[in-house]
């Protein structure tokens, strides 16, 4: 099980400083959608150059032109690129084909998918690397979490690995770990804490004990 740190509300220098604090305890750095909107794929390149030993995920949330977007993110150094599960099968297939050529991984974000079981089975059959359940900020604000959805995909997905995101904190991590996803994605649960290093260390321990 890998721990992915999601960076969303920082600029590139702030992101690099933050990763310096926790780098021993994380496996993947996510360049979040808000950073890519502000700074472009340059942020992916800068993070990969600063931390060549960490994997980098570009949270592009691609919805169209999957092959092209994956090509651009791969050129910037992304190891993982996110595609939306609600996009067309052709978009996901294009992304998967491009990722295969470049030895990158596709993580499909199921945010906004209404029939999770059906779409998870379909997306799994398209040969994606990861299927991720994700409660976005707007539904977190309404009190929702991704834990039931994680159990659903663990039950129906046969080939892809699984990931989970959306408001995960140190207190709720044990419930997530129990479901055994392949990647646990944590943003505010680390970046919003005053002692980020200590929280990341404890999270890593919980994951390793898993
Ligand atoms: O992709 C995102 C928002 O769309 C976030 O990166 C993801 O939800 C993780 O952050 P947090 O743990 O703060 O919810």
Outline:
This protein has 210 residues and is an alpha/beta fold.
Overall outline: globular
Order of helices and strands: EHEHHEHEHEHEHHEHEHH
Ligand set: ribulose-5-phosphate
Helix content: 40-55%
Organism: Alicyclobacillus acidoterrestris (strain ATCC 49025 / DSM 3922 / CIP 106132 / NCIMB 13137 / GD3B)
Catalytic activity: D-ribulose 5-phosphate + formaldehyde = D-arabino-hex-3-ulose 6-phosphate
Family: Belongs to the HPS/KGPDC family. HPS subfamily.
Enzyme class: lyase
Summarize the structure in words.
InterPro entries: 3-hexulose-6-phosphate_synth, Aldolase_TIM, HPS/KGPDC, OMPdeCOase_dom, RibuloseP-bd_barrel. Keywords: Carbohydrate metabolism, Lyase, One-carbon metabolism. Pathway: One-carbon metabolism; formaldehyde assimilation via RuMP pathway; D-fructose 6-phosphate from D-ribulose 5-phosphate and formaldehyde: step 1/2. Its EC number is 4.1.2.43. Helix 5 (89-102) links the parallel strand 4 and strand 5 (105-109). The protein has helices at residues 12-22, 33-39, 42-50, 66-75, 89-102, 116-125, 137-140, 147-156, 173-178, 188-191, 196-209, and strands at 2-7, 28-31, 55-62, 80-84, 105-109, 130-134, 161-165, 183-186. Helix 4 (66-75) runs parallel beside helix 5 and helix 6 (116-125) crosses helix 8 (147-156). The protein has a single domain, classed as TIM Barrel. The protein is α/β, with parallel strands linked by helices. The radius of gyration is 16 Å and the shape is globular. The longest helix has 14 residues, at 89-102. Strands 1-2-3-4-5-6-7-8 form an 8-stranded parallel barrel, surrounded by 7 helices. It binds ribulose-5-phosphate (5RP). Ribulose-5-phosphate (5RP) binds next to strand 8 and helix 10.
